[in-house]
Every structure is written in C-alpha cells, then in structure tokens.
Amino acid sequence: MSLALTAHAQSTDKVVVAHRGASGYLPEHTLEAKAMAYAMGADYIEQDVVMTRDDQLIVIHDITLDRTTNVADKFPGRARADGSHYAVDFTLAEIQSLDVTEGFSVENGVRTLNYPQRFPLFTSSFKVHTLAQEIELIQGLNHSTGKNIGIYPELKSPAFHLAEGKDLGRAVLETLKRYGYTSKQDKVFVQTFEFDELKRVHDELQPALGIELNLVMLLDGGDENAWMQTEDGIRQIAQYADGLGPEKGMIIDRESPRGAPRISGLVGFAHAAGLQVHPYTFRLDEGHVPDYATSFEDMLKLFYVDAGVDGVFTDFPDRAVAFLNNL
Ligand code: G3P
Ligand code: CA
Hints:
single chain; alpha/beta; TIM Barrel; five-stranded mixed beta sheet; four-stranded parallel beta sheet; 12 helices; globular; binds SN-glycerol-3-phosphate; binds calcium ion
C-alpha cells in the first residue's frame, strides 16, 4: 500500500478519526490497528485511556478487561461483585500478560464476536499497550513518513477513576505535555463524556500544567444530558471546548426514511458557537448503515456534505479517507 496514494488529500479541512484504530479490520486499540489506521491515511488516531492499579495509563475502551481479553481465564477470583475485572485492580504487568482480541460477548459460556465479520477471536497475538507506547508509535511514524498525524485521547470515566483515588485527567495531560503536546496548534484533541471533567481540565488542570489543548465534549444523546443538546447548552460547552463529539443519531434522525434524512440543528448551533463537530461512530458492518442511507459512502456524504460535519469517527478509516479524497 502506498502511503502517498492513501494519504488524505489536502483539498478539504474535514478530517477522519480512526475510531480505536482501524478497528474494523484488526482488534480495537491494538498497536497493529493503530499502525494500519496510520497507513490508511487517517488524520487522527483515537486512544481511549484507562488507569491501572499501579497508576499506568493504558489504551483500552472499557474500564473492565472482560470484553477484549482473556482476563477471566487468566485471573480467576479477581472479579468484583458485579462479575467484571476492572483495570484499576490489576497492575500493568498483569494486564500486559493478557491476550487481546476483538470485542466479544459470552452466552452460556460461549464467546461470540460482537461484529461477526471482524478479526477472528483470540487468533494471532495482540497485547494491551500504554498511552506512551502508542504516542511513540504515532510520533515515530510521523518522523519516518514526514507526516503529522494527530492523536485523540479520551478520558474514560474520569469520575470513576477519581472515586478510586486515581486522577486520570491529570495523568493523561502530564503524559501529553511530556510528549510535546502543549498548545492548540499541536495535533491533539482531548475528549470526555463528563462535563465536570471538561471544566476541570479547562479551568484547573491545564492552567496548572501551563498547557492549552483542543478539547472535545462528547454527547451520547441520553436524557441525562439533554441540556447539552440545546442551543444554549452548546454555547455553555463552547466556553470550555473546541469541539463537539455527538452520537451520530443526534445529527441525523436514525428513523429518517430513505432519501429524506431529517438533519437536526446541532451542527449549526455548534458552528455558530465556534465548535468543530466530529460525530461517532461510522461502521459498515451489517445493520450499522441506517436505512436512510443507501450505502456507507452515502451516509458519509449525508454527514460530511449535507449536515456539514468537520470530521467523523470511523472503524473503517480507509473508506472515509477515500470518500474525502474524491470530494
Ligand atoms: O470518543 C468518541 C467515541 O469513541 C465515543 O464512543 O464509546 O467508542 O468511546 P466510544
Ligand atoms: Ca472513545
């Protein structure tokens, strides 16, 4: 694959965020999936960040290890009362001894891939890595290719971590600073679903570290945070953030009929408030292209062109890069 041929064209400012890497093709949040996303020409590569018992930052989506590793086999008796194995209860060495796989569910003791067409369960060899290891991979590739691909770390469940005595937000920002991410000119967006943490990052943590990064408020469309989905709520978010990361059904009603997408006012409100908009998550697995779109590319066109979003999170970065290159 030629990097030159797959690199995102510079004719548009719109971006592709590789969601958990090229996770449609390789197990999510593995270094292999990140290298593949890089080669596919993604503009940003996402890291979901969680802390271990010994205060190390790891790249994994869930605060539990069960969906993507063999922790239940390897560490019997280490689950909490709810039956889950929490990363904060394990050291980095213990976690790095686990095998990693694409996400699965367990029913009657049988493990099944959540996306049946994706990388086969527990085949080949994949491991959990640290945030620092992933940044070194991306910065190393930036050095060897001459490109400047960005990172997009998410603070996962910061309130949960604080309740466990772990300041995830501070540790992530310290790591970013250590690797040279200090200003809004640096290619990084720091994202979170928790508004209180967004404010803490903006008002306390960044000033204490002397850094000022691009921040993104994630929205899941739930009733609990309904105030954030209003024009006034978005103006409040804009006091702290540079971007909005909404669930894509908040922009186009997923029940819209074919050929008649109902586009909400969210992107307009966000742009008026000075926020970029990066909805999630664009998948082409069976059942994941809504009925209102004729194809994955039609869905991309409805969002990038008709709704006017600035970027998308996708498990299939090659397809979004190709789409933008053909705009
Ligand atoms: O962070 C954007 C998107 O990744 C949010 O969804 O649950 O995959 O982290 P999630
Ligand atoms: Ca995420």
